[in-house]
Amino acid sequence: MAAPNIRTLLEQFLDHLEIEKNRSLRTRTNYQFYLERFFDWAKTKNGNKDVTPAGISDDLVREFRLWLNRVKNGRGEELKKNTQNYHLIALRSFLKYLSKRDVKSLPAEKIELGKMPERMVAFLEATDLERLLAAPLTGAAEGKADVIRLRDKAILELLFSTGLRVSELAGLQKEEVHLDRDEFSVRGKGRKVRIVFISEQAKYWIKQYVEKRRDISPFLFVAHDRAQKGRSDVDAVGLTPRSVERLVERYSRAAGIPKHITPHSLRHTFATDLLMNGADIRSVQTLLGHASITTTQIYTHITNQQLKEVHQAFHAARRGKKGKG
């Protein structure tokens, strides 16, 4: 019996991702984009005929990798290495699925991801952090309604307190965040649930903000300024991740912070602060919701200076004063 054609197998694989693997619709959409890009490229190479599962070979994948490395996006820029790897991750996952279905194709383990350049982590020094957290209550928010200033203050405090991803924060609903407790659950990447802990400062400002609201939206953070565009405050809608990104960028500029700051910078600052104050990397991994410890290890080089100071204080000091060794 002949195997289904590649496009049918793709749809079955995407259903498998969504149902059996419990992946989000966004993940499904991303995998569909990456795989269709591969199939369309292979179809062009194959005389306008769809590639068969058996036709996916080492050589074909190698040519595709070369094409990914040279192709330009809509802005005329080369694809970033991590974007190129996303295509390979999707293809590898598809090939694993074919193997489980006993459909003959290239073994998934034949595909190795490209080496990534060392990732730079942007985090805030203590003085910059304090200026940023204070910005919504200063002249930086001049002209904004009190409820918006309180909302923005609560957002910044919560991002730093918990290390939430911006998408996680934007999706929070009021009933999920119990202010009488110091923790709440959040559903992160891969729909995995983890516990995050909230500071007294974040709890205080969230409470101030919620008490000021007059809408009935279930979301914790909503777009009050939409009322100025013909919508009633009762009709308030939840903030989008992009809206949160824009307000963080706006307050960072107003605070005079020279580097580009995003909500993820506050997540980096949260992790760095924990490590600098003695937290072990496994605990930080759990608090951030990283599936792999290798993802968390990007923060370890930040603490190298602290390790140097420890070495000088507790090891080099044993040699005595300079010149007496």
Helix fraction, binned, reads 40-55%
> In terms of structural class, how would the helical and strand content be classed?
mainly alpha
Total strands: 2
> Helix tally?
13
How far is it from the N-terminal to the C-terminal residue, by CA? Answer: 80 Å
Low-confidence stretches: none
Largest sheet: 2 strands, antiparallel
Mean pLDDT: 86
Strand arrangement across the biggest beta sheet: 1-2
Overall morphology: elongated
Which strand-content bin applies to the residues? under 5%
Radius of gyration: 25 Å
What is the N-to-C succession of helices and strands? Answer: HHHHHHHEEHHHHHH
Describe the structure.
The protein is mainly alpha-helical and 325 residues long. Helices cover 50% and strands 3% of the residues. The protein is built from 13 helices and two strands. Strands 1-2 form a two-stranded antiparallel sheet. The protein is elongated. The mean pLDDT is 86.
List the helices and strands and how they pair.
Elements: H1 6-19, H2 25-45, H3 58-70, H4 81-100, H5 126-134, H6 146-162, H7 166-170, E1 183-187, E2 193-197, H8 200-212, H9 241-254, H10 263-276, H11 281-288, H12 293-296, H13 304-314
Antiparallel strand pairs: 1-2
